[in-house]
Here is the input.
Amino acid sequence: MVSAENPIVGSVKTVVKVRLLPDDQAGDVLGRTLVLCNIAATQVATTAQARGVFRNWDLRKITYQPLREEGLSSQTAQHVIKKVADAYATRTANARAGRYGPKDGARYQRIMGTSVVFRPHAAQPYDDRVLSWDHQARTVSIWTLEGRKIVPFTGAPEHLVLVAAHRKGESDLIHDRAGRWFLAATIDIPTPKVTEPDGFLGVDMGIVNIATSSDGTNWSGGAVTARRKTNLAVRRSLQVRGTKSATRRLKKRSGREQRFVRDVNHRISKHIVETAERTGRGVAVEDLTGIRTRVRHRKPQRSTFHSWAFAQLGAFLIYKAERAGVTFVQVDPANTSRQCSGCGHVEKKNRTDQASFACLSCGVSLHADHNAAINIAARGQQMWGRSQPSHDAACPRQPAGTPEQQARPFRAESLTGSATPTRCASRGRGPR
Ligand SMILES: [Zn+2]
Here is the structure.
C-alpha cells in the first residue's frame, strides 16, 4: 500500500471499539475492578481538591502509596492518578474558556470549589502493561483485582483488522448502561503522502440522490427514505402508546435505522474514495456547513436527520480520503445546481425540475445532480490551483489530467461557449 513514491508522512488517529465477551465470573470481577478504580479516582480527586494539588506528578507523590495499599497494581494506580489530573486539567481549561460563567459567579464558584466525582462505571484507561492483545485467539489478557483474566473479544471485521494492525497506546475499558463491555482502542494509521491530484472527482449530495459523482455514478436515497418513512409511521404509533415496551422498541428501531444509514454512507464513501484513488484524482464536495443550511424542510425533525446523515457521509469521505492519501477539498456551494457545467451560464431556470438540468444558453441537458457534481469537481480543481501558488510558480502550468478533467474557470455571467460544447457533449448524458 505504501510505496517508495508514497512515503509515510503523517497519521490519522481514531478510536475503534471492540466488544468484550467476559463470562459471568470475569464480568463480575471486571465490574468490581472498574468500580474500585473509580472510587479510588474520586478519593484522589478529593485529596487533590483539598490540598490544591492538581498536576499528575505532584499528585502521584501524595496518593500513589495509599492506592497501592488498596490493592491497585502499580500501573493501574498511575492511570487512576493521571485520569484525575486530566479531569482537573479539563476543568481548568473550561474555566479559562468561560464555560462556567464569570469568576465571581455562583456557578464558577460551585464547580471550582467542589472536587471532581467519577461515576462508579466511568471508563478506565489501560495500557500495554495491564492489557495485552492476542489477535489470533481474539482474546485480551486484562488486569483485574483478581489477577489477569483472559477475555474474548469481537467486533466489526474492518475494526478487528485495524486493531490488529494499528493499535497504539491506551485503550479505555467501558461498561455501558446496557451492561455490555467494550475496549475503545486508539488506532494510529500511517497515511501515505497526499499525491498531487490529477483532476477532481466531484460529489453532489442530496436527498433524492444521496450522492452523485461527476463521473455520473449516483446513489439513490430511495431505500433510506422509504425505510425512514416506515419507521416514522411505526414510531408515531408507538409514541402514542407510550408504554415501557413501546419506548424500548422505539429505541431499537432508531438504532437500527442509524446503523442502516451508517452502512449506506460507508459504502458510498468507500466507492468514491477508491474511484478517486484509482484514477489519481482528488475528491471535492460542497462545503459541508453549506449543505446543512441548504437542506430545508417543512419538518425540523427531517432536516435534523438529513444534516446528520450528510455530516456523517462527509466525515467518512474525509477520513477515508486521508487514509488513502487522496486530496480532499470543500468548495463554495453557491449556485452549483444552477450553473451550467458546460458553459458556466448561471440561471435559476436552467434547472427545469428536481431531476433535470437544461442550459438556456448553450442547450446542454443532463441530470441535475450530475451537472452539479461536475461543477463541484471543477471548483475543486480551481481551489487546489489557488492553494498551491509556490508549486505553480516552480513548474510550468500543466494541464491537469485529461482535457475532460481540466479545470475550467467558471464565471457568473454567460460565456459564448464555442470552446465548451465538446465537454457538454462528451459528458452530456446522465447516468441513465
Ligand atoms: Zn451551458
Summary: Residues 8-190 form one domain. Confidence is low (pLDDT under 50) at residues 1-7, 290-302, 389-432.
